[in-house]
Amino acid sequence: MGCFGRTVKSNKRSEPKTTKKNDVTSPKKLTNDPNIVHKNINRDNQTQPSSDCLKVTLCGNVNEEVDTKEEDQLALDAKDTLVEDEVSGKKAQTFTFGQLAVATGNFKSDCFLGEGGFGKVYRGFIEKINQVVAIKQLDRTGSQGIREFVVEVLTLSLADHPNLVKLIGFCAEGVQRLLVYEYMPLGSLDNHLHDLPHSKKPLAWNTRMKIAAGAARGLEYLHDTIKPPVIYRDLKCSNILLDEEYHAKLSDFGLAKVGPRGSETHVSTRVMGTYGYCAPDYALTGQLTFKSDVYSFGVVLLELITGRKAIDNTRPRNKQSLVEWE
Description:
Binding site for ATP: 136
CATH topology of the largest domain: Phosphorylase Kinase, domain 1
Keywords: ATP-binding, Cell membrane, Kinase, Lipoprotein, Membrane, Nucleotide-binding, Serine/threonine-protein kinase, Transferase
Family: Belongs to the protein kinase superfamily.
GO molecular function, one term: kinase activity
Mean pLDDT: 78
Number of domains: 2
Structural class: alpha+beta
Oligomer: single chain
Membrane topology: Lipid-anchor
Strand content: 15-25%
């Protein structure tokens, strides 16, 4: 989700067994996967062993005003959703719901930035750290939930790269789940590439290539540097955020999954992603590989080159899909 400037609402399509509300407009999210960056439940010989779960040791300063009950809530969420629950100590700070309400003026409309599958996003200022931030608030009736929240915290707490958005902290208090990020003033790539007003100039070619290179470096870090390696699974224009100098940063890691290691060639999983960006072989077989992310990057690159959307339902049927465009 592109969530740090004015954004559009992402759209998802879940499997029949889920009870959460789902969006129906394009592009569409594919089905929900209960096995995201966690101890896997062996379904067949192709499923990666439980030893490949995401091992995270989070460390750093914790807000002294937050009691231990809130700190324990993330571990409870991880356990309840079958996500790896090694969360003793945290790199990201914890905030109370009250602190984030103050930061956003009680989530007033003037601070509203956009909305996606996770929920609404607000601009805020946290006085204690003297920083402008972006705050995502989980919509409990939306297409993402506690599982995606936990995965996001664990993945971004483990990661450290200039082309990945920085997670500053989170709130897990009662029924409230919120994520606090660095604020990205230019919002998502989608806002600068598609449906531009007549008064806005298209991105220069050098800027487009700069953005593509930044996204590629972020993806390379997830695949080749971070341990264990991670498959992003949701690379798209709305998830590439831009700072004031058009440096690209990948965001929204709720669908991330630990990739195959050793002699494994893939991870067997239910299909998830966004229609138009999902690799055909993964969509057909459920066999997830790092190449699935590479395919999605190729779609983004085509969008940068042509200025067209991955899926555009306003065009004739034979021209709606960018990768099938003749």
